[in-house]
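The methods section describes the discrete structure representation at length, but only in general terms. An entry of this sort, consisting of the sequence and the corresponding backbone structure tokens, reads as follows:
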Amino acid sequence: MLPSARKLKTAIDTGATHGIGLPIHVYPLYENATRASRGQTLAENNEESASLYADFAAVAQGNTAAWSFGKKAATKEEIGTVTKKNRMICYPYPLLMNAFNNVNLAGAVILTSTDYATELGIPKSQWVYPLGGAGTKDSDKFWERPNFYSSPSITRSLDAGLEVCGLVKEQIGLYDFYSCFPIVPKIACQHLGLAIESHSRPLTLLGGLTSFGGAGNNYSMHAITEMTRNLRERTPTYGLVLANGGTMTYQHVLLLSAVAPSRPYPSKNPLPPIITDVPVPATVEEANGEATIETYTVEFNRDGTPDTGHVVGRLQNGERFLANHADEETLSQLIGNEEPVGRRGWVRNEEGRNLFSFEKKARL
């Protein structure tokens, strides 16, 4: 079926016009663009995501607070294979690569001074110290960001968080990266030089938002509590929690330590509330002419059939636009075996919506 211009409460302007703006739409845009930027094939990318989330599922299986505790952990094959139970949501993510956001969990963190901890009789062997952190955000409008294969808010939060604590990445022994979709820990790993697969240091202590639970339950507070329990063992010394929110929009990094800090806790966030110093292409509401796909995703129906193609494209003058698929052949090619990112086609505006096609003469 052809797309309708339904309205989304979480999207505005051109996003709402084209029915795109939910997390299930935007994170796949980043995954597809990053895959193309890294030169991965479609199969290689799917295998990497499935392997990453299988590792996370194995962690959650042994975490007593996870919804999946004690259950058989999903395997790489089960996560990466589309089936009736593991249906495609928005390409390239089937259900088991999406956060399960209706899990009812609760967590609490108690922060106090060393003097009061002593007064309470808490042994020093149980003390874990917050060293500091950093956080910022990218534009709320995903189409007003520099590209879809990087996240300035993630990379700057990681760098500033380490710097303000006087640490370097090689000193970090434990991580928990927010993982509503595979692309978030992937971008963090790429920036820190960590292996996405076969990693020597765990990328999650909880098990990820699919297998542990999230996102509607303050996932990263659970990460802080789990990090605290791990650091009480005193090996390793430092841990880092990356919290992500929105549609790859806002980030915050917190570093914890098993040893007393040598510097006071930072008095303020070292980063601005929002990143504004990156070049962003102009976005046009109405697009017509020859164009190139910058990134894309395809939303699927519950019966497994493709429903709506979402394209972020560039006109020949470099201007960016959002569009839906113009015809069934284009929709089919968007989920075919050829990499769509970088392919040329044509866009036209009809009745207020941009429609993209690989064939110039395609019509509704």
Remarks:
- Residues 1-12 have pLDDT under 50 and may be disordered.
- The two ends are 11 Å apart (CA to CA).
- The first strand starts at residue 88 and ends at 90.
